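Ticket #4471: structure output looks truncated?

Reporter: J.K.
Steps to reproduce: submitted the chain below (106 residues) through the standard prediction queue, then opened the result file.
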Amino acid sequence: MRLGPTGSASCSRSKSAPQPRTPFEKLYIIARPLTDPAAFDTPFGRAAMSMFIREGSLPVFIGMQGTKRLVYPDPDFGNAILDPENTPHRSLVPAALEWRRKYGMT
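Returned output as attached by the reporter:
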């Protein structure tokens, strides 16, 4: 996917890790800048990331220079998803349990 009039924004795809380090790496969306990492700071880049996050069924990472950073779920929601019984974010537990169900986590 290209965004913006210069064509320098980002590309994205779904991906799975053969041996996930975390449950969020089982299947996820990763967005990578085509040229400049600042592409995600543009209105077009923010709109693309927001679209994937609003859809909400898969984790979303930004990848740059051989690394990736989780942007969805955010840390609080991620904690509720990974540890719903012990999370301090009790208000997020119902949504976290639903997310777990949809994502195939038991």
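Triage note (M.O.): checked the attachment and the full token line is present. Helices lie at 43-55, 75-82, 93-103.
Status: closed, working as intended.
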